[in-house]
Write a structure and sequence with these properties.
The protein is mainly beta and 214 residues long. The protein has 2 domains: 65 residues, SH3 type barrels (Roll); 118 residues, Cathepsin D, subunit A, domain 1, CATH 2.40.70. The strands form 4 sheets. Strands 10, 11, 12, 13, 14, 15 and 16 form a 7-stranded mixed β-sheet that branches. A 4-stranded antiparallel β-sheet has the order 1-9-18-17, with no helix packed on it. The longest helix is centred in the middle third of the chain and has 6 residues.
């Protein structure tokens, strides 16, 4: 049965923060496995392994000194020592947010540069495409390994393929496994776990947020 769906709205949230280029760091308190560190005039109590909002990580601490790591470089600080350092914050990952339409999360992305309408399906082990979509994407799916997959209509013949590039909003992944069903199903491509498994998925009320893990 054919239905027309409205594509769910995508909003790209720019999560970058305006960080200062130089950090002024002063160690003002030392304890076993803890340190009170003043960073750009803001005091932070750090335990070993903790990272401050400015990106400073406490590696070790005792009553004499603390080892702090910034931008991949570790330095030893004595109590009261004052050091200024250049700082390059990590690049913030874009978040793709999708709202449901009729209870289903749908969005438009691309496969190998071609536009594809997706239904987000965390129950699907991989991206699933029908034969017509695969042909439009110029996929030589018939040369892929043949498998049987269980669908609502029964067991269908499918072919394993690798997709060079899959993109949703600003999230782009490479070499993603997919299955092509040699039929008209699924009517809308399924965005399965071969793609979603590489992302952090969070829900806030009805909204679904997708973000790369790394």
């Amino acid at each position: 049965m054919s239905k027309t769906w409205i594509v769910g709205l995508i909003i790209l949230l720019n999560t970058s923060i305006a960080w200062p280029n130089v950090l002024d760091i002063v160690v003002v308190g030392l304890f076993k496995d803890q340190a009170v560190v003043e960073i750009n005039n803001k005091q932070r109590l750090l335990k070993v392994g903790m990272t401050s909002p400015e990106g400073v990580t406490l590696v070790s601490a005792n009553s004499r000194s603390a080892v702090l790591e910034k931008n991949g470089v570790s330095e030893t600080y004595q109590l009261g020592s004052h050091i200024s350092t250049n700082f390059s914050p990590p690049v913030a990952q874009s978040v793709v947010s999708i709202w449901p339409t009729n209870g289903m999360y749908m969005t438009t992305g691309s496969v190998n540069g071609y536009s594809v309408d997706f239904l987000v399906d965390t129950g699907a082990s991989a991206i699933a495409l029908n034969a017509a979509t695969a042909k439009r994407l110029d996929l030589d799916y018939l040369s892929g390994r043949k498998v049987g997959v269980k669908t609502a209509s029964g067991i269908e013949v499918a072919y394993n393929v690798m997709l060079d590039e899959v993109q949703i909003g600003d999230i782009k992944l490479h070499n993603i496994r997919a299955m092509v069903l040699d039929s008209e199903q699924p009517e809308r491509a399924l965005l399965g776990m071969s793609f979603l498994g590489e992302l952090d998925i969070h829900r806030k009320d009805e909204r679904m947020d997708l973000k790369k893990k790394f």
